[in-house]
Amino acid sequence: MHEPHDHHHDHSHAHNSPDAMLRAAEDTCHRNGTRLTTQRRLVLESLVEGKKPLGAYDLIEAMRQKTGRAPAPIAIYRALDFLKEQGFIHRLETLNAFIACPHHHDESEPVVFLICEECRSVSEATADPLASAIRSVAATQGFVAKRQVMELAGTCRACQSPVGAQP
Ligand SMILES: [Zn+2]
Ligand SMILES: [Zn+2]
């Protein structure tokens, strides 16, 4: 289903094979005294394997293909809430979709999502240079930021190359 060549994405430093990511998630749950139930695991697995942002209904379809049974939307939303709280996934507000996070960072850490409008691939980058700028913007307003997420829409490197470009 997903393409074998993934030379253009930039998580080379992260152990983001599906197995490694699921194992890391299980370890984190164990440390936090929470449980990666079958349902939660299946949702996370679908997001990890999908490699692209999936909406709740994409996930229901992915689960139906895995288990032969479509879960109720409420069950999906509960699983997504849990995975989000644990820092395993992010919600992309502009797409109303979810993506697995290979980085295991704090919820308050600034991140930038680079969303390709051609192929719907999403890269996640940390935004250290932005962090202090964002902090000072917030500080001048006396605002305490909880989430510091930016979503950039555009064209990824692979989609810019003439090979495979749409005429
Ligand atoms: Zn992340
Ligand atoms: Zn692209």
Topology:
Layout: H1 18-32, H2 38-50, H3 56-67, H4 73-85, E1 89-92, E2 97-100, E3 111-116, E4 122-126, H5 128-140, E5 149-154, H6 157-160
Helix pairs in contact: 2-3, 2-4
The structure holds zinc ion (ZN) (2 copies).
One zinc ion (ZN) is lined by residues 90, 101, 103, 105, 111, 124.
Describe the structure.
The chain is an alpha+beta fold. 42% of the residues lie in helices and 15% in strands. It is built from six helices and five strands. The chain has helices at 18-32, 38-50, 56-67, 73-85, 128-140, 157-160; strands at residues 89-92, 97-100, 111-116, 122-126, 149-154. The strands form two sheets. It has a three-stranded mixed beta sheet with strand order 4-3-5, with no helix packed on it. A two-stranded antiparallel ribbon has the order 1-2. A hairpin with a 5-residue loop joins strand 3 (111-116) and strand 4. Helix 2 packs across helix 3 (56-67) and helix 2 crosses helix 4. The longest helix is centred in the first third of the chain and has 15 residues, at 18-32. It binds zinc ion (2 copies).
